[in-house]
Amino acid sequence: MPYNIDEKLVIAVASSALFDLAESDRVFREQGEQPYRDYQRAHEHATLKPGIAFAFVKQLLSFNRPDEDAPVEVILLSRNDPDTGLRVFNSIAAHGLDITRAAFLAGGEPWRYIRAYSASLFLSANEADVRRAIMAGYPAGLVLDSVLNNEGYDTQLRIAFDFDGVIADDQAEKVFAEKGIKAFFESEVAQAHIPHNAGPLKELLDKIAQLQKVEKSRVTEGKTREPRLRVAIVTARNAPAHTRLVTSLREWGITVDETFLLGGLDKSRVLAEFEPHIFFDDQRIHLDAALKVAPCVHVPFGTRNESGSPGA
Q: Which residues have a catalytic role annotated?
């Protein structure tokens, strides 16, 4: 029977998202390509340290169980060639990550192959790659220099999303940016019964919601004591703009575990308690405050990334 990757939750990661490549990058920037190649060859058996997305990837892969269907796949999309990329695969093996598929592009653009691998998310520390992916309509996020989640003690995976510009499109953000908060609330109340259009990571949330249903059924069947996956929406919205958020999730058939309507409060206050393995937001103003409490990913989508102003 042919392998069907389309049925899985697929995450594509660059090595820069999965591992700490600060030293390797320094060699490349300061000395050039050939010294970088020589450095990677000389250190190809030196295991790389975890990067920002490492805990998220490791916990996600734990949902694949021996002798059962594997609902998750992680693909490596690398700008390296296979020779210089060998250190990355050696590190993957050393950390016990079940990652077997990869694309080595020898300087090519990894984001072009997101759909080829049916990926619902591409994570990278290369800002140009992420922005090009978003501009082309692909789901992508830029991992930021932020705190690492200590996955060692955890059996649960926790994921936090902003709503506007991440799960939903930036239609409401445009109203806020162009006309102000009063017009934003008026627009959202008037359209409270109309679901938002999908944003760049809505497909990812769809796949995660499917995985959640499987986990909850395992609890019902007594195979596990509690669901090992919790999802939160952490948004600057507050009442009465909450109704359209609920309308959208209901229309999409998605139920999240926790929803925080912060009305402009610092999101890091909630994130410090929720302790996500990864947090997605489209606005750097919110992410800059969260860098010390959560692994952060910037989704450079929509009007706020054109103007750089704060919003919902």
A: 162
